[in-house]
Amino acid sequence: MVAMAVVVLFGELHVSEAVTCSPLQLSPCLGAITSGQPPSAACCKKLQEQKPCLCGYIKDPNLGKYVNSPNAKKVASSCGVAVPNC
């Protein structure tokens, strides 16, 4: 629940014309990140779409700890998304 509150407070960041960076887009991944369960197809799709935004999320003091958490890295790996070194 705390993660969702942080995500809601973060808002949006525009990185490119094609992608609107919004951590809310990753809400299908919340269960997998918080519980360590395998990610859903919807989660992986959203994670792929939000890939250009990951550095911004990592650098955000409120979101970085979630994006860099062991479960989030496991979700990203399961979805074939490399967590960038920013």
Structure write-up:
With 86 residues, the chain is mostly helical. 50% of the residues lie in helices and 5% in strands. It has six helices and two strands. The chain has helices spanning 2-10, 30-35, 41-49, 54-59, 64-67, 70-78, and strands spanning 13-14, 20-21. A two-stranded antiparallel ribbon has the order 1-2. The radius of gyration is 11 Å and the shape is globular. It starts with a helix and ends in an 8-residue tail after the last helix.
Question: What integer is the average pLDDT?
Answer: 84
Q: Give the neighbour order of strands across the main sheet.
A: 1-2
The N- to C-terminal Cα distance equals 26 Å
Q: How many DSSP H or I helices?
A: 6
Tell me the helix content.
Answer: 40-55%
N-to-C order of helices and strands: HEEHHHHH
Largest sheet: 2 strands, antiparallel
Poorly predicted ranges (pLDDT <50, ≥5 residues)? 1-16
Taking Cα atoms only, what radius of gyration do you get, to the nearest Å?
Answer: 11 Å
Number of strands: 2
Please tag this protein with its features.
86 residues, mainly alpha, 6 helices, 50% helix, disordered N terminus
Summarize this entry quickly.
The protein has 86 residues and is mostly helical. The chain has six helices and two strands; from the N terminus they run αββααααα.
